Amino acid sequence: MIEKARRFAEEKHKDHKRLSGEPFITHPIEVARILTELEQDEPTICAALLHDTIEDAGVTVEEISRLFSPEIAELVSGVTKLGQLVYESKEERQAENFRKMFIAMGRDLRVIIIKLADRLHNMRTLQYLSPKRIRENALETREIYAPLAHRLGMWKLKWELEDLSFQYLEPEQFADINKKVAESRGSREEYINRFQAEVKALLDKVNIPSTIYGRAKHFYSIYQKMLARGIEFEEIYDLTAVRIIVDSVKECYAVLGIIHAAWKPIPGRFRDYIAVPKSNGYQSLHTTVVGEGGRPVEIQIRTKKMHRVAEYGIAAHWVYKEKTTDREFDLKMSWFRRLLENQSELKDAKDFMESLKIDLFTDEVFVYTPKGDVFQLTVGSTPVDFAYHVHTQVGHRVAGAKANGRIVPLDYKLQNGDIIDIITGKVDQPSLDWLNFVKSANARSRIKNWFKKHREEEYVAEKKIEETRPVEISKPHKRKIVLGIKVSGLENVSTRISKCCKPLPGDRIIGIVSSGKGVSVHKAACPTLARQKVNKEKLVEVEWDLSRDSFYPVEIEVEAFDRVGVFKDILSQISNTGTNVSSASVTTKRGSSAFLNIIVDVKNVEHLQKVTASIRSVSDVYDVKRAG
C-alpha cells in the first residue's frame, strides 16, 4: 500500500518542483521518512506520501478513498489547507486553517503527527523562501508547532523545531551558542563520561541492568535558560543531562536512592513524573546532584517504555496500541479535548490564535482536590482557573477558595502540591474582574461567554431598574422611631442620637445636656467627643431602655463589583433578615466598583451584625462597614 501511494504521488507531482529546484516528490517522501523513524502505521505513512495531492495536484478526497481507503482519505483531508476561500485578513485565514486542523485532530490525532512531520521538513529547507516568509514560518513554528509537539510529548520533533526557528529568528545568538557549545564539547563529554561510568559501576554492583548515556541540551533551551536566569553561557554547567534507562518502575526508584546516597542532591530539583505524569503522558524521575568539582549534573531515570513515550509522545500510542487501553489514552489526551472545547467557542480570529498560544505554550502546575484527585493546570493559574477546569458550573458559582485548608484570594497563584477546595454559591455569579487574573483560555472563554449571554440591552434594563430603586425604597412605610433611652436623674427629657457616631443598643453610651435641646446621646468612645473639651457638668449617665421595642436608623457603606443585579441581591439579602431599608443610594461605574449607602432600621448591634453578615454573603461584595 505504501509503495502504491508513493507511485501515485510521484505521478501526480511529476510536473512540480520545489523552490530548491528538486522534484516536489522529495518533500512527501521525506515527511514519510520522518514518520517511519517514529514507527508510525501504514495509513499514516500513506497519508504522508499523499498529503499534498489534494491541494497541489487536483486530486479529490473521494478518489483517495476509492484507490486507498476512507481512513487514509480522512487523514489526507485533515492535513490539507482550506483551499481558495476568500478571507478578510491573513490572520483570519491562518486561524481558520488551524481550526480545521484541530477539528480533524479531534477525529484522529494522526493528523497532527503528519502535520508536525510536514512542518519539520519544511523548516529543514526553509532557506529557499523569501526573508519575509522565512520569518513568518519560523515564528509560526515557534509559537504553535513546537509547543504543540511539546504538548503531544514528541520531544524529538519539538527540540529540532525550536532550534530551527531559533536559527532563523535570532541568527546571531544561535551562531554564538553553537560555537561555544562546540568549543566546550570535549571537556564536557569527558566529565559526563566519567560520571556515567561511576553510575554504571554502582548499578552493576547491585545487579540492576541499565542503559546510561548523556543527552546534550538543544540550543534554544540553553538560550531560554540564559534569558530566564540573566546569566552568561559560561555560567551554565548543566549542558548535558544523564539519562538512565532500566527495566521496571521499582528499579527507577532503587536507582534514585543509589544516586542520592552517592552524590548530594540539590534541594528543590527533584520531580516525580512517574507518580504524577505530565499531561502529555511523559514519565520520568528528575533529580540534580552535585558532581565532581561542585558541578551540578541533571539526571533522568525512566523505563524503556517511558523512554519511547518521552521521545515519540502521542505517536507512541500506535506503537503500543495493543498494550494501552483506550481509557489510558483518553486520560492522557483530556487536555486536548478541553483545548478543542475552548477553541470552538472563539469566533474572532485574533482571540482564537491568542487563546491557542496560551493553551499550548505554557508549563504546568499540579494541584489536588480534597479527595486526592490530581489536576494539571497552566503555571500561574488561580482558584478560578481550577474551578472552571473542574466544571463550568463550578466556575460560574465560585464564592471563595481554600488552599491547604486556609482561605486564599481568588487571584492566588496555585503552587505545586496545593490542595484546593472551592467554595460555591447557589447561583451563577461570575465576575468580569476575574478576566484580570485568570490564566487559562478555558476560564477566560467561559467567563466571556456567560456575559455575552446576558446581552447589553439586559444590562441597561437592569441598571435602569436599579437606579429607580433608591427612589422607591426611600418612601417606605414609615416606622416610628422611638428612642429607648433612660437618662439618670431626669424624667420626660427629650433625647436624640448624635449624628457623629450614631450609637446602637449594645454600644456603651454617654449623654450631653444641651440647653433647649435635651440630651444628645453619643458612644462613650465617640472620636468627636474625644476632640472636644466638654464641660463635665454637662455629662450625664444614660442607658438603653431595652424594655421598649425601639428601632434606630444606621447607615451602612458597601463596596461591590458593579455587575448586573448586585444592588438587587444586596437588598434581597437585607430583606431576608426582616430589616426595613429606609433609604439607599448607589454610585456606579461599569466594570468597576459600585458604592452603596444604605440606611436600615435596627434594634441593636447584634441586629446590625446580622444585616452586615447577610450583605457580605452576596457574591462580588468587597467591603461592608457601619458608616462613621
UniProtKB/TrEMBL annotation:
User: Which residue intervals define the domain HD in the entry?
Assistant: 24-123
ACT domain location: 555-628
**What range(s) does the TGS domain occupy?**
363-424
Q: Name one GO cellular component term.
A: plasma membrane
What domain of life does the native source organism fall in? Bacteria
Matching SUPFAM superfamilies: ACT-like, HD-domain/PDEase-like, Nucleotidyltransferase, TGS-like
Outline what the protein does.
Answer: In eubacteria ppGpp (guanosine 3'-diphosphate 5'-diphosphate) is a mediator of the stringent response that coordinates a variety of cellular activities in response to changes in nutritional abundance.
Q: Which family does it belong to?
A: Belongs to the relA/spoT family.
Q: Which NCBIfam families match?
A: spoT_relA (TIGR00691)
Protein name according to UniProt: (P)ppGpp synthetase
From which lineage does this chain's organism come? Bacteria, Bacillati, Saganbacteria
